[in-house]
Write a structure and sequence with these properties.
By secondary structure, this protein is mainly alpha-helical. The protein is 43% helix and 7% strand. The longest helix is centred in the N-terminal third of the chain and has 13 residues, at 24-36. It starts with a strand and ends in a 17-residue tail after the last helix.
């Protein structure tokens, strides 16, 4: 995939629609976080992934970390990264 720069530091990309399955509570937290940052869910996910690809934490500021903690509590997301390879579909 090629990309081209277009004025004022913008990066033109080719986005595709996808049907990715995501755990329900994780999705609710992500949607809430996207709303908090006034961005789309897709833009939020792209930013998280680009940070992860470089071994960087996508959220370091206390305000975002507090919002994430609050959203996790509100939506009952009671597990973290340690569970990432143990998630299985419910019946």
């Amino acid at each position: 995939m090629s990309s081209a720069r277009s004025g004022k530091g913008k990066l033109v990309v080719d986005r595709v629609q996808t049907g990715v399955r995501v755990e329900r509570r994780i999705l609710k937290v992500l949607k809430g976080l996207a709303e908090y940052h006034d961005m789309s869910l897709g833009d939020l996910l792209e930013g998280i992934v680009l940070h992860a690809f470089e071994g960087k934490a996508p959220f370091r500021d206390e305000a975002s970390l507090q919002v994430i903690a609050d959203l996790k509590r509100i939506y009952g997301l009671d597990f973290g990264a340690e569970a990432s390879h143990r998630l299985v579909d419910g019946e």
